Amino acid sequence: MTAASDLLEACLPLRRRSYATTAEAYRQAYTDVATTLPLFPPPMRHIDRPLPPHYATAPFLCTSGGRLERGTPDDVDELLAGYLVSGVSPAAPNIDVGGETVEVSSNGQARRALAAASAEGKSYWAACRAPVEHPSWWPVRAGAKAVPGFEHLICGEGASGIGMHRDRYREAEQPDRLVSTYLSLSRGRKHVLLLPPTDEGAAVAQQLGGEGCDDASGRASSQRACFPLLPSPDLLERVLAAGGFWFDLEAPKEESEEEES
Question: pTM value?
Answer without folding.
Answer: 0.85
